[in-house]
Specification:
The protein has helices at 7-10, 16-24, 29-39, 72-97, 102-111, 140-153, 164-177, 181-197, 202-212, 226-246, 255-266, 274-288, 308-317, 324-333, 341-352, 364-373, 378-393, 397-416, 428-434, 439-461, 468-489; strands at 47-51, 57-63. The chain is mainly α and 499 residues long. Strands 1-2 form a two-stranded antiparallel sheet. The radius of gyration is 29 Å and the shape is elongated. The two termini are 55 Å apart. It has four domains: 7-99, no CATH class; 140-250, no CATH class; 275-352, no CATH class; 364-495.
């Protein structure tokens, strides 16, 4: 019978071999028993063994299975085992009978390495059964979302290659090697659809097709059993991956991409150690003057997360959206031993420009915020990417200046709903006033924009007299204009441009 090291001990660096060493160092049965159940919770199994590196049973401490029931060692220690089990069961019953939330009960369950799909009992007739499965229909949806997360991140759940993050990571590696990436993208879409059209698991096929046709998972109809949860997770993760593929050229730093990041750096075999992950987020917390949900070097044992990926994902989702790009790039730079970080960096730079490069003192947070803010302004976003790439590569100063000017011009046209050139945007002042921008700041922005336009016309657009020292100044001014306009624009969601 195979067993994994419980997640919180595993991510704190303990292995089966180290646990065995600690257990067998104890002098007698009782001390060995008490040491063992620290690492392998007692309620999860009546088979108490040490394990080899593959998780296979090795040294028996106590086993209550039918085959060992009459073994002399079992009979000699049965009273001790049963007393210890009753004590743990009573503790669990008190917790479950208290007025604790479903989330708290679920976390308690997971922390004790218990399956959330199974009820547990101390008595032979099952009359004292306890379970985390809710009876109240109002809690069905919450329970199903919790088991979805559990199945997705548990070592006994969905294979990593079938999760959204795993699918994206594998796909990005292929894309990084492809000679004709557009063909790889189209083939991936077709292959995924065909796979589910002829899927051997009928229910997964039905769920996937329903999602394609605008349906959604039935979160609140009933509680899912293990098989139903697996079907829902596999089908939905595949559907989310197909959405990722369909929007590949317009990628944003939302859930699919964050899952990809979490998969790369949180992979159990190829990612970072938890201590390194926690140290990184501690440093970022000091820099940003915030606190991340999971930044303690001791992996949490409260059941709130059960994998490194989940911890990274929670930290990324809780960070300022406009600064996620910089955070992710810094994470990649802090993990030189993670081989697949190179594909991720390349993909980030392909989407948002070479953020890993230096901008001669210009804040990467400023550039990153503008890049993300321009996602709804497709043509302007593309010009900004081309502009900053030319600035960094120092390949074509005229191209850098032209693209930065065109970015600002296209942005204002879309924002203000007109087709005027940059020097004739006479309604910008009125727009800023409506947005509550103070008079003095409004005047300063309009004045700077006037000089910005004159410089572009006199030294770039008509004469090509660009000085090397001027390029970063124009990049900084362009980014600053855009940052202030984007921040003013999002104050009213109704002003968002049509997609």
């Amino acid at each position: 019978m195979r067993r994994d090291v419980v997640y919180y001990w595993k991510y704190r660096g303990l292995t089966h071999q180290e646990i065995e060493r600690r257990v067998l160092a104890k002098p007698d049965f009782e001390s060995r028993f008490n040491e063992l159940v620290v690492y392998y919770p007692l309620l999860a199994s009546g088979r108490l063994y040490t394990y080899d590196e593959d998780g296979l049973e090795k040294e028996r401490i106590y086993c209550a299975c039918d085959g060992c029931r009459y073994h002399p060692d079992t009979m000699a220690h049965r009273a001790f085992f049963e007393a210890a089990y009753r004590k743990e069961f009573a503790k669990a019953r008190v917790f479950f009978e208290a007025n604790n939330s479903l989330l708290a009960k679920f976390n308690y369950w997971v922390r004790n390495d218990l399956s959330p799909f199974i009820s547990y009992s101390e008595s032979d007739d099952g009359s004292d059964r306890i379970s985390v499965i809710p009876m109240d229909k109002k809690e069905f949806a919450e329970y199903n979302r919790l088991v979805y997360h559990y199945i997705k991140h548990s070592t006994n759940g969905v294979p990593r290659s079938m999760t959204l993050g795993g699918r994206v990571a594998e796909f990005e590696v292929r894309m990084s090697r492809a000679i004709y990436p557009d063909e790889v993208l189209e083939k991936a879409k077709i292959a995924l659809r065909k796979d589910f059209e002829s899927h051997r698991m009928n229910m997964q096929r039905v769920i996937f097709e329903d999602l394609l046709n605008g349906g959604e998972l039935d979160w609140s109809v009933k509680t899912w059993d293990y098989g139903e949860c697996m079907d829902n997770v596999i089908a939905n993760e595949a559907f989310l991956f197909l959405k990722y593929l369909e929007t590949y050229g317009k990628m944003r730093l939302d859930e699919p991409f964050l899952e990809y990041v979490a998969h790369v750096f949180g992979d159990d075999d190829l990612g970072m150690d938890w201590s390194a992950i926690a140290k990184f987020f501690q440093e970022q917390a000091v820099r940003a003057d915030i606190s991340f949900p999971y930044q303690d070097e001791r992996f949490p044992d409260d059941g709130s997360i059960i994998s490194k990926k989940a911890g990274i994902m929670a930290n990324l989702e809780g960070f300022f959206p406009e600064k996620r790009y910089t955070l992710i790039m810094d994470l990649a730079l802090a993990a030189p031993d993670v081989a697949s970080r190179h594909q991720l960096i390349s993909r980030m730079e392909q989407l948002f420009g070479p953020m890993s490069a230096s901008f001669d003192g210009i804040s990467r947070d400023l550039i990153g915020e503008v890049q993300l803010g321009l996602e709804l302004y497709g043509k302007a976003a593309e010009k900004f990417r081309l502009g900053i790439r030319a600035v960094v590569d120092k390949s074509d100063n005229r191209s850098a200046m032209d693209n930065l000017r065109l970015c600002l011009e296209l942005f204002l046209k879309q924002l203000l709903g007109n087709n005027k050139p940059l020097e004739k945007q006479d309604t910008l002042g009125k727009y800023l006033k409506e947005k509550g921008v103070p008079t003095e700041l409004r005047s300063m922005l309009l004045g700077l924009l006037d000089f910005y336009t004159k410089y572009q016309n006199d030294y770039v657009k008509h004469n090509d007299k660009v000085e090397e020292a001027d390029i970063n100044t124009i990049l900084y001014l362009t980014a600053t204009f855009l940052q202030r306009l984007l921040r003013a624009q999002i104050e009213r969601q109704s002003d968002l441009p049509a997609s």
